[in-house]
Amino acid sequence: MTLKAIVVLLAAVSMGSFTPPAHAALRVCADPDYLPYSNRAGQGFENKIAEAVAKALGEKLEYTWASTRGQGGFPEFLARTLDANECDVVMNIPYGSREELTTQPYYVSSYVFVFKKSKNYDIKSMDSEVLKRIKVGYESDTPVENGLKMRSLILSAVAFDVGGSSDESPTAMLNALDKGQIDVLITWQPVIGNFLKQRSDLEVIVVPNARTLGSPEQYAFPMSMGVRHGNEFLQKRLDEVIARNQAQLTSILTQYGVKLYTPQ
């Protein structure tokens, strides 16, 4: 490449007008066995989102597979993959995460209460009195765990390590509900949304970002795509893809039973 060509290329990059070559790939970090998010067979909603983004960018899709649920959890997953330059983007990370650069959110969802409609529980928030009298199931290492601790409900509750154990499917939480091991489940809605499609017997109520006493809590989160710090170029390109293709991305999420919520 001549000096003139290099100067032109660098100028294009600095002006944000550089178009990657046709053979460029969207390198995505993903879990090989964690439905409904992703798997090697491409059956998760993160897989479908990645396919849509790669197509919009005109790039082929390449995966770096690594468990998000191993020792160290999601932060360790990011350290071993995205931060190690093994790939360039993750498809699902809370907006504004300090660990990585995040795109504009492409959906907002929430933690939810799930229980059998036949129970007819009067549950409106984490401060509902009925939660003191029934068996609560929850995902460990989540805002729900902190909320239960603040209300002195944690000792009588049942923890599920779905997000930390690669051997446990989110369906384990619904199975515990069916067997009467817990009376109400409090979990991130996207992790069970696809499994709820055939469960008309279950009531699903959003956990509000509210508290009877003290400062508000957060149970609804805007979700984004994440790239390495310093890769503002890719961040900008992904923002443009989200803006142009939001309807398609929303359609994919809806197909997987992901409920979209506006924080209260």
Q: Which characteristics define this entry?
A:
12 strands; 7 helices; 2 domains; 264 residues; D-Maltodextrin-Binding Protein, domain 2; two-stranded parallel ribbon; elongated; 29% helix
Q: What would the CATH topology of the largest domain be?
A: D-Maltodextrin-Binding Protein, domain 2
Question: Mind telling me the CATH superfamily name of the largest domain?
Answer: Periplasmic binding protein-like II
Spell out the helices and strands N to C: HEEEHEHEEEEHEHEHEEH
Helix-strand makeup class: alpha/beta
Got a strand count?
12
**Please, how many helices?**
7
Q: Any guess at the CATH architecture of the largest domain?
A: 3-Layer(aba) Sandwich
What is the CATH first-level class name of the largest domain?
Answer: Alpha Beta
Largest sheet: 8 strands, mixed
Uncertain parts: 1-22
Report, as a whole number of angstroms, the end-to-end distance.
56 Å
CA radius of gyration: 21 Å
Overall mean pLDDT stands at 89
Give the helix level as a range of percent: 25-40%
Task: Compute the number of structural domains.
Answer: 2
